[in-house]
Amino acid sequence: MKDQQDIPVASSHRQRPSRSGGRAGRITARAIDRQQKTGYAGVTGGTYQPLSEQDIHRIHATALDVLEKIGIGDPTPEILEYALPKGCLLSDDGRLRFPRALVEDVLARVPKKFDCYAPDPKHDHQLEGSRIYTGTSGESVSILDYETQQYRPSTLTDIYDAARLTDQLEHIHAFYQPFIATEYSQALYVHDINVAYAALSGTSKSISISTIHAEHVDALVGLFDLYVGCEGGFIKRPFCTIGGCPIISPLRFGKENTEVMVRCAELGIKYGNACAPQSGATSPAALAGTLVQCFAESLACLVVMHLIRSDAKLIFGMWPFISDLRTGGFSGGSGEAALVAAAAVQMGNYYDLVQSIPSGMTDSKTMDAQAGYEKALTTTAVALAGGNHLCAYPGTVGSLMGLSFEGMLIDNDMLGNILRLVRGIEVNDETLSFDVIQDTVFGTGHYLNHQQTLQLMQSEYLYPRLADRRASGEWEDSGSPDIYQAAREKVKQLLASHYPGYIKPDVDARIREKFPIKLDPLDKKPGNGRW
Amino acid sequence: MTQEVNETEEDIILAELADDELVEQMHDDLYDGLADEIAEGTQILLDRDWGPDKVLEKALVSGMNIVGVDFRDGILFIPEVLQTANAMKAGMAILSPLLAEIGAEPVGKMVIGTVKGDIHDIGKNLAGMMMEGAGFEVIDLGVNTLVEDYITALNEHKPDILGMSALLTTTMPYMKVVIDELKSQGMRDDLIVMVGGAPLNEEFRKAIGADTYCRDAATAVEVAKKMVGERRAIAT
Question: Same structural domain for residues B145 and B196?
Answer without folding.
Answer: yes
